[in-house]
Amino acid sequence: MVADSLSRRDLRPFAGVWRVQVVLPAGDDDSLRGLRDLVIRERVELEVELGAPVGFSLSGSSANASGPPTREQPDSDTPVVLIGPASHNEELRAWIRRRARPAARRPYVELDGPLLVIDAAGASEVTSALSLLRTAVRSRPAVGSDGGAPAGAGEPIRLEQTTASGPPEVVRRVADEIGWTYPAFGLRGIDGVALERRWRPVAERSGADIRVLQRWVAGLRDAHTAVRPTDARGFLPYSAFVASDDVDREGDAVRASARGSAIRLGHVPRWSAGWAAGARSGDVVLAVDGPVDPDELLATTGAERRTVGWFAGRRAMTVLPPGEVTVAVRNRAGHVFTWTETATGTPYPEPISWRRLNSGTGYVRVRGWLPGNAWSDALDAAFSELAAAERLIVDVRGNVGGNLVAALGFRDRFLSRPTTMGMIRFSVGDGTLAPPAPIEAVPASGRRWIRPVRFLLDRLSYSATEDALLGLRDLDHVEFFGEPSGGGSGRPRTVPLQDGVVLNVSTALTFENSGRCVEGRGLAVDVAVPPATLGSGHAVAVADTFW
């Protein structure tokens, strides 16, 4: 339930202390570097979770957050956070030996006096352990802390990532985690208590049926906040949207008109099997490896009215698991086209492509944000080959997000000096939001672009794409063309519910420097491009005029 009087008490483990030392894992592989970069870049989020400012050090050394690394160790009174994996954190291994703890079999957090451990078997799983921190802190009264004792008083508190014991606990987790985490009740005018009262009994009677849970969570109108299967997903290379005679919001629910809805194709790439079979934009999707239900997709997709049809359509183009599927569509003349193709882990052949337009303008298409050197090397190659161009168009239409570190690194390539990109507010866990914190950025150390650049975006430019673009429009050499982006601040936590099912919950609201909230409204544009043009091959030509 949305925060009650108990949750109003500041249960955060180090609330009010002057500083917390965070010891990060050492190691040079991509996963460890990516983990460190993520934690440091998202420092504000960690400070909100802990209730105090943080400084960072690498395992085996120490570094003040505002100064260079030193060999000084934290004062004995300074709380310490040890972040795994233990295989790359010698201080964490020493604690495990001292406390006779077993090796991590699954992600866990443990509060042991003035020390907090966040650990998992591998670097990729540590992010799951970080998601556990809010749950561990907010459920402290249920596991032995009275919520009013000093941090670390009493027995150690340990929480491992586990699925719920049964349907009643699944329903309770959904209610609790939304109440502890969701940041946009006030922004969207949603009565969280009323939403829970409506759906919780239905979910309990259904035995925590995933479709009921999805309808409940869809009432939050946030594509980041959803109940979803964890199975590997396969994506078809098409955008699609659910078109309805009347799609409306009734309080917390989406209603598709009884007159009927249809899933229609949006962008159909010329290189795709669908194009070869005769499919075109506007065709009605009849089947994706079986019938698809547009009304069910609308009812179980959380998004604002402006974007819900597109996000529901994206789900229609997603299959579980990846593999060969048969697709059938009907065009306006009534002809049916059927083809078979393979749904893969990404809906595009290459995440980055580039070329020189006939006008001489450089053009870069960014379809997704991926971790690792291969992605950043491709971006370096693009900037190198287009170095002679006097101006650049970056096309992020349809880019629904991906790796946050990659997106922020991309953003930094357009900076010439340290810059405040916007503001961010995280939920605290007691029904309130932390004060606004600036989002600061510094120029990238690699290839950069500080000549005129225009970004082409649409309502499917979402999540990490919006993080990549936030604040760039304020720069003198940058313009945004298209329509406002999808409006997803995100930073979602992931909470396991049952085998194969998780709950994702947004934690933050981001803001442009103007004060405009990105959540729900999207990033503003300088030059509006009509949707019909934006979804066509003419959009790039429109962006490439009147420089």
Automatic annotation (TrEMBL):
One of its GO terms (biological process) is signal transduction. GO terms for molecular function: endopeptidase activity; serine-type peptidase activity. Residues 58-67 have a biased composition (Polar residues). Residues 58-79, 141-166 are annotated as: Disordered. GO terms for cellular component: outer membrane-bounded periplasmic space. Residues 322-530 form the Tail specific protease domain. Pfam families: Peptidase_S41. SMART domains: TSPc. InterPro entries: ClpP/crotonase-like_dom_sf, Tail-specific_protease. This is Tail specific protease domain-containing protein. It comes from Phytoactinopolyspora alkaliphila.
